[in-house]
Amino acid sequence: MLWISVFPSALFAHNFTITKAVVSDLSSDEERAATLGKLGLAAGLGFLSGPVAQLFISDYRGATLFATFLQVLSLGAIYLLPEANGCKARAG
Asked: Which of 27, 30, 74, 90 is disulfide-compatible with 35, CB 3.0–4.6 A?
């Protein structure tokens, strides 16, 4: 079971790196640092709120409902993102 548990973490290990690259490509040069800072803040708040949420989840059903709620919230946030007009080419 230990070796099987390694696969999901290996598959999803680089999601934050990919997210930073996408945000960096889609933001303007003037707003890139602020945008990456906000992304780091969101990730930090996520890491901090995880252990706190565990205090209120006592069974499998509660964990499933909480995960479903967060998934719906994420989809709503994705829906509110501005439309990308395509990737800009970088010179240099």
From this structure: 27
Q: What is the DSSP string of 5-27?
A: HHHHHHHTTTHHHHHHHHHHHHS
- Type of residue at 85: N
* Both tokens assigned to 83: 């439309």
66-91 pLDDT, tens digit per residue, is 889 988 988 888 788 777 665 555 54
Helix pair angle (32-54, 15-26), 10° resolution: 150
Q: How many CA atoms lie within 13 A of 56 on its CB side?
A: 8
The 8-class DSSP code of residue 89 comes to P
Alpha-carbon distance 39 to 72, whole Å?
A: 19
